[in-house]
Amino acid sequence: MHLNIKWGKERTSFTIEDPSLPISVLKNYVSQWSHLPLESIKLIHSGAVLRNDNAPLASYRFRPNATIQVVGSAETIPVPPQGSAQKSETTIMTQIQEQLTLVRSSLVPSLEKFLQTLPTQSNMDIPFDSTSNSPTSPASIHKEHARLSEMLLQSLLTLDAITVDGEWVQARQERKAAVREVQGYLDQLDAAWNSRVR
Known about the structure:
- InterPro entries: BAG_chaperone_regulator, BAG_dom_sf, BAG_domain, Ubiquitin-like_dom, Ubiquitin-like_domsf.
- The protein is 46% helix and 12% strand.
- The protein starts with a strand and ends with a helix.
- It is built from four helices and five strands; from the N terminus they run E-E-H-E-E-E-H-H-H.
- The protein is α+β, with helices and mostly antiparallel strands and 198 residues long.
């Protein structure tokens, strides 16, 4: 079975020959392909971070040609120190809402503008300028797509990094809804990008 690997503008594929192999095999492949440090790589599938490196590939139930998003940095990401103060469910829900507010106020308007200017079959009446300094030039469109995609993925990682105690039902539901909303924006961006006029 083939998986599509997506890192910014870069694309490759990965063939699962033995589904009992651990996720770490896929991470190693991505590290070799992207030249990113292994410890900085996060793999995302359907809005969820593939955390358990020892879990077999089969446990994630990938469909043929599923897309795996790669988020990583050439620099290693420092792990924030664990605070001694225990966070409350209210504090966690506030963090989730702050992240959603940030996405809604800073990314959603840019996403909506981008979707309106992206030449697709449904908006062919919008003029498309091929000059490189125009906001609708191919170079600018590619750059904005990469920026929005990366920012939405970073938001997903931020939400995923929020630790929710197993007993905090409301916080878990809020985080799940927030991830679903941000993933929806990313899906909307990818669907428009895939249907663009080239």
